[in-house]
Amino acid sequence: MSAAHPPSPAVTLRPGRRLVAVAALAIVASVPGFFVPGWGWLVAAAAVGLALLAIRDGRAAARAVAGVRARRRLPAVVGRGLEFTSTVVVSGDGPLPPLVIRDVHPADCLPEWHEAALAPTAGSGAERAVACRIPRRGRHAFGPVWVRLAGPLGLVEAQRVVECPGTIEVLPETFASRDELIKETGAAVLLLDRTLRSREMGAGTEFVSLLPFRDGDDPRRIDWRATARHGAPVVRRFQIEKHRDVIIALDRGRLMGAATGTGTKLDGTVDSALNLARVVLQGGDRCGMVSFDDRIRGYLPPVAGPRALSRLVETAAPLACDYRETDFQALFTELQRRVTKRCLVVVLTDVGDLEASRTQVAALARLARRHLLLLAAVRTPLLRRVTRTPAEDLAAGARQAVAFGLLRDRGRALAALERDGIHVLDVEPGQLTLPLINRFVELRGRNLL
User: Fold this and answer.
1) Cα 237 from Cα 216, distance rounded (Å)
2) 168-178, pLDDT tens digit by residue?
């Protein structure tokens, strides 16, 4: 979470432009006092009068700024890197003079701050709207604003920090907008809405109804008692079981911090994980989430119901990469301890060098013996770019050799996982969402749980 500057209730005063100008004029006017008798006393009297007026003006400015109130309008949720509007509304107990506000945004917000002159109207105040973008996921807090106004004579200006809190939740961009999800995907897609709304008939295990026998029906599903009552063959219809458990495991280790052009690999997997969670919940199943690197960082047991998606968003949105080595043994141990029922575990991660991959494969193979395991391996785009760029010198050739070696080790590790009965998905981070959802729908339809 990005914190704003702490508020301060104190009113500070400073000379206004008019006071500075009059003081400069008084200095110039005092020069004849060296030559004209009595002129100095006249200038001194004028200075005392100016000081008294400045004190009175300062008190009026302080009273006016003390009565200023501010409130902020923000959207509750916005997509990462997408534009939104932050509006500051300024009002007072009575008519306010023209004033200047300075709003300092959270550290990750663009722009970092803005300053604007406002002319409030009696009874309605004034407002200032600024277009902002936040390229980092998580919850971001907007803090107070600095308000400055001049007294009635314009001799003194008063400034005060006015409380103006606001919080916005920044989510992955495609999760925050379903239109963006559909627009970004050009590949063939299982029509999700139609798939989830339709009843999934077939080789399920949950009884639905009795229907007359038709050509192509499995004779083993004939209900003989109902057939005897109706005098014609009747079969039992089943659907895929609902209320199954799906756990999404998000790797936030070192490999997931690699840049992809639109954030990191972790950003892409969080995006896809939340979209998958939405599909899981819409399908009538329960969804949980676990985040890990060298140890377990967070765990939400499978949940369902109206607030389930909000809880999953709160779990996933603030995740950040700490650049630690990933330990799948920690994931295996935690799920063994917490999850007794067989479920679908979706692991969003990547595999690295050969030695580390051997350890990962062994831990994941043990996990697959108890649960149905889908591993989505997120590629590092830089490796592909290096291998496809012609080597123009020795250093470029060495980079290519290293990249080819890493890709070879990665391919061997994924092949070993598939041999151990693990379902593997190998995709670019920006193209993960729909292949992941499609594979989930496929596995669910096959009733492998």
Assistant:
1) 13
2) 988 876 666 55
